[in-house]
Amino acid sequence: MIFLDNVRAVLKARWHFRSAKCLGRKVRLWGSAIVKNEGELYIGDRVRFEATVVPLDIGIGRGGRLEIGESTFINYGTSIGVTELVRIGPGCNIGTYVIIMDNDFHRLEPERRLERPPSGPVIIGENVWLGARVTVLRGVTIGAGSVIGAGSVVSRDIPPRSLAAGMPAKVIRQL
Q1: Active-site entry in 36, 106, 107, 170
Q2: Any catalytic annotation for residue 16?
Q3: Does 104 have pLDDT greater than 90?
Q4: What local confidence, expressed as pLDDT, does residue 36 receive?
Q5: N or C, where is the chain less crowded by C-beta within 10 Å?
Q6: Residue 140's pLDDT is what?
């Protein structure tokens, strides 16, 4: 039974991520995903997507690039919006309902709210853990081995091997 479940998950991943430029070996998807890919999508080996409760939402705009490193786990309800670059390193764990976006998608000034501001690449290092409902905003780099506490909003860079939490996320201690 487990074998059939894994085969089904591999076939689902092949179908939902068929527009990927590179789809690694043994990529698995349990549940469903909403994928709009007008750019480039690269998924490494053994990436696991768990979307049985709520679908994943992945949107890559024209000229955008999403890279997901090998052995990464992405949980249900995650939403990734890419207009330029989002790079998720190998061995990462992405919690439920995480939002990662490299653009704010509108300006703050009332008369300019229909304008899109410039993008800033989001780089998530190797072996990073993002807790449930974390929001990662444009132009942020999260260093390798870091942990971001549940419900945090990451609006500035986090150094490697750090525990960060809050709104905005601040480093609590080094790991």
Answers
A1: 106
A2: no
A3: no
A4: 96
A5: N
A6: 97
Cis peptide before 168 (omega within 30 of 0): yes
Phi and psi dihedrals of 110, rounded to 5? -55, -40
Q: Which amino acid is at 39?
A: G
Token pair belonging to 116: 């899109």
What's the per-residue H, E or C state across the chain? Answer: CHHHHHHHHHHHHHHHCCCCCEECCCCEEEEEEEEEECCEEEECCCCEEEEEEEEEEEEECCCCEEEECCCCEECCCCEEEECCEEEECCCCEECCCCEEECCCCCCCCHHHCCCCCCCCCEEECCCCEECCCCEECCCCEECCCCEECCCCEECCCECCCEEEECCCCEEEEEC
Task: Specify the pTM.
Answer: 0.92
